[in-house]
Each structure stands twice: as C-alpha cells, then as structure tokens.
Amino acid sequence: MRASEDQLRAWMIGGLKGDAGAHAALLTALVPMLHAFYRRRVRDAAEDVEDLVQETLIAIHTRRGTYDPERPFAVWLFAIARYKMIDHFRRRRQSCSIDDVADILVVEGFEDASIARMDVARLLHTLPPKQADAIRDTRLDGLSISEAASSARIGESDVKVSVHRGLKALTARVRGQA
Amino acid sequence: MMTTDALIRSLAADLRPVPRNAVGLRVAAGLAMGGLVTTMLIGAWLGFRPNFSLVLHSQSFWMKWAYAASLSAVAIAATIQLARPEPIRVRGLWLLGLPIVLLALVGLIELARLPSDQWLAMWLGRSWKQCPWVVLRLAIPIFIGLLWAYRRLAPTRLRAAGAAAGLAAGASAATLYCLHCPETSALFVLTWYSLGIAMMTAIGALLGPRLLRW
After folding, report:
1. What is the dihedral of CA A95, A99, A101, A107, to 10 degrees?
2. For B17-34, how does the pLDDT look when each residue is reduced to its tens digit (9 = 90+)?
3. A118-177 is classed in which CATH architecture?
C-alpha cells in the first residue's frame, strides 16, 4: 500500500533529525512512487526509468536540507522528480510537455497536499462533459492527446482546446472559492 | 548498476542530522567565504582607505554602503527563495526599487546644488572607467561562493537562480568596495556601481542554466 503524505512527512522529518531508520524507510517507500511517476511520463526503456529513480533518490538525499517541514512533502518531492525528468529530456534533446507540480499532485493522488483541498471529481462535474472528459483522459488517466481524441471521436486540437478551457474554468472556480 | 536497495542502504548509512534552517546557513557560508576572499583582494590589490575612522563619519560612505547593502539584502533573500525546488514565486523583488529611487532623489538634490558645468565631472568622478570592472572582479569570489552553496541546494529555475546569485554577489562586492572607493557622489554610485552589479547579474543569468544543473 502506498504511504500517506503524513507518513512520508514524518519519515522525512525523522531523517532530517538524523534517524537513519526513518530515512531508509522514506527512500524505500518512494521507490514505487517514483517508478509510477516516471513510467507514466517517460516512455523509455526500463533501465532508463531505473536510472532516473536512483538519481532522484540521490538528489532527495543530498538536497534534503531544502525541505521545509512546514510545507507539504509531496510538493517538494514531485518538484524534484519533475526537475530530474526535465533534465533527463534535456540530455536526450527530446521535447515534451511537462505538467505543473500542481497537476502532478492531482495525477499522483496527492491533491490533498496541494494548498487547495478540492475534490477533483466534484470539480470536474461542474464543467461541460466534453471538457471534463478531456481533462480526465489526458491529465488523470495519462492518455496522450491523440488517444483521448480517438476515444472521444473528436479532433486533437478539440481535445487541447477543451483541456485548456476546462483547466482555466477550474482555476477560476478554485480561486473564487479560496 | 547498483541495486536500488543497496543504494538506499548506503545513503542511509552516513546520515547526518540537518539543521533546521539549512538553506540559509549554506547560503550564509558561501557568502562569508566569498566575502572573505573579496575583502583580502581589496586589501592586497586596492588598499583600504587610510583615514578609516574619518571615513566612517562621512555621509557619502554610508550612502554608498546603504545603497549596496540594501540591494544585497534583497538579492540574498531571492537567492534563498530560489534554492528550494517548490514552485514558489519570488517575493520582495520590488524592494530593489527603493534604494534605487532614494539614491536617484539624492542625486537630483546634488544636481540642484551644483552649477551645470560641473555635472559631468561629478557624474564621472575620478574612477568611472575602473569602477564597474572593479565591482565585477570583486564579485567573482562571492559568486563562486554562492555557486558552491547551491551545490547542496535544489534550484529548479536555474536562470533566475543564477541571476539572483549574480545580483547578490555584485551588490555584496559593491558593499565591500566602499572600504576602498573614494567617490562621494550619489549619481556616480547610482550609475557605475549599478553597472558593475548589473553586469554580474547578467553573467549569473547567462551561466545559471549551465553551472547550476544537478
């Protein structure tokens, strides 16, 4: 079972105080999470994903002093994972679109860690069905734009526009409620 | 390749506790080391002002010092904010405008007090050709100190982090350069100090994406 934000944060704070057991428990718990994160986004060989996971673990260890215990752990974690992924693509000279940390938290199931504790399903329900489907397909279920387009039987640009408009409407709604 | 389990064991094996404000301490250590080298350079290369107790009573010294030190303080705060990986927007950058506007006001008063045929001489002082380059050269040790600090930190906006480190290095070097610089005019400082600081900032922004990668 995946560890919760609270559990990860407690291990992290223990590690910062010098508790080697807590630190090892944290890193071990992060391995499957990072695997899932990179597998969903990096379509490379398994060894590359393994490399990225190890590099990220080393970065988390070396740079652990930059975690502020007052702030959500998942935000810090995925900001590092995201940076390592961008660096990976840069070295390969590949280009790809990369989500914001806020989007990543939703996809990885850490939306509670973000500042707005919003029920994603309930929010999506308030959008027109086409926009909600486009966001659910591309941002939550990890489909590519073309996969989402063929499953909804609409054009790719239509999917992109729907995602864009839907996210914009959601952002406006979240800001309004805050 | 090492297995992930072995990697985790080796990382946890040499675990040392991390102080609570580790980011600030690390940046302070980089600044202090760079600042020490810069101070020694001033002593060996330029020399300190001989009549230092007199200098400390002069308004122009404190004007220069306050200008450079306040720019430096804002830049150091930005450097610290950019050292964390989270997508934080850098706050407080508008504060950079305050010392600039204040010094410009002092400069206007200076201009009003002097006949216009002396304006150019005041603006250029005796060292306008060297001043920006001296500030830039003195900034390099501090910039290196901040690069060293960033090696254990996690900047994700590398260009912005490089620019902040360059600005902090330039402004801190200018703060120390006051120990030598004999100029007294506000407009001189506003132009030539700022030019040196701006060059260091631009170099930082240029080099950031290359030197700060991790």
Report:
1. -130
2. 999 899 999 999 999 999
3. Orthogonal Bundle (1.10)
CA dihedral A109, A113, A118, A123 (to 10 degrees): -40
Give B-chain residues touching A61 at CB under 8 angstroms.
11
Place of tokens 């922004």: B205
What are the sequence ranges of the domains in chain A?
Answer: 5-111, 118-177
Alpha carbon of A161 to those of A86, A136, A152, B131: distances in Å?
24, 14, 14, 54
Rounded distance between C-alpha atoms, residue A121 and residue A111, angstroms: 11
What would the pLDDT profile of B34-92 be if each residue is shown by its tens digit?
999 999 999 888 877 777 777 777 788 889 999 999 999 999 999 999 999 976 678 88
Beta carbons of B176 and B65 less than 8 angstroms apart: no
Rg (CA), chain B: 20
Q: Does residue B138 belong to any structural domain of this protein?
A: yes
Q: With beta carbons under 8 A apart, name residues in chain A contacting B11.
A: 23-24, 27, 57-58, 61
Chain B (9-28) residues lying within 8 Å, Cβ to Cβ, of chain A:
9, 11-13, 15-20, 22-23, 26
Q: Is the pTM of this model over 0.90?
A: no
For B172-207, how does the pLDDT look when each residue is reduced to its tens digit (9 = 90+)? 999 999 888 888 888 999 999 999 999 999 999 999
How many domains are there within chain B? 1
- Residue written as tokens 């914001």? A100
The tokens for A19 are 């508790």
Side chain identity, residue A120: V
- Residue type for B205, please? A
This complex has an ipTM of 0.85
Residue of A nearest to B7 (CA): A54
CB neighbour burial string for B62-80, b if at least 16 within 10 angstroms, e if fewer = ebbbebbbbbbbbbbbbbb
Q: What are the tokens at A38?
A: 């990179």
Tell me which CATH code domain A5-111 carries: 1.10.1740.10
Does B117 lie at the interface with A, CB-CB under 8 angstroms? no
Task: Determine, yes or no, domain membership for B137.
Answer: yes
CA dist A152 and A130 (Å) reads 8
Q: Which domain holds residue B144?
A: 20-211
Q: Does any domain span residue B9?
A: no
How far apart CA B128 and CA B24 sit, in angstroms, is 35
